[in-house]
Amino acid sequence: MLYGQEHVKRYQETDGEEGHDWQGTTTLLLTTKGRRSGKRYTTPLIYQWDGDNPVVVASKGGADADPDWYRNLKEDPEAGVQVRGERFRARARTATPEEKPRLWQKMVATWPDYDEYQAKTERDIPVVVLERL
């Protein structure tokens, strides 16, 4: 099973042939700029399409703190995205309260554990839309 930096490496080397399809769902690679270090960090994340834009969930497994990649995006919303062999720039935004229920259901349909993660924390887990630039 691919995970973490090995997942990133194999995904990049194979244009997603290895790593895109993962545990019954699909993943993309999100590259953000560290809010303190300024370094680039790439994270594999479960995604679904909403029109032309991928959507991801800042769940961190139901932890009480937001994941680092989401905190980075709040500081600098421009990011790199790779879906299979396609790479593009995107501007991240947190889903509005009006659109979140629909997007949350879409994401739970592909990864049912998101409902469990939300139940584990008082934090309102953000759904993030990656709008192409």
TrEMBL record:
**Catalytically driven reaction(s):** oxidized coenzyme F420-(gamma-L-Glu)(n) + a quinol + H(+) = reduced coenzyme F420-(gamma-L-Glu)(n) + a quinone
Superkingdom, natural source: Bacteria
InterPro entries attached here?
Answer: F420H2_quin_Rdtase, Split_barrel_FMN-bd
User: Which Pfam family name is an example for this entry?
Assistant: F420H2_quin_red
The family note in this entry says: Belongs to the F420H(2)-dependent quinone reductase family.
Stored PANTHER family = DEAZAFLAVIN-DEPENDENT NITROREDUCTASE, F420H(2)-DEPENDENT QUINONE REDUCTASE RV1261C
Kindly provide the name given to this protein in its UniProt entry: Nitroreductase family deazaflavin-dependent oxidoreductase
Please name the taxonomic classification of the source.
Bacteria, Bacillati, Actinomycetota, Actinomycetes, Streptosporangiales
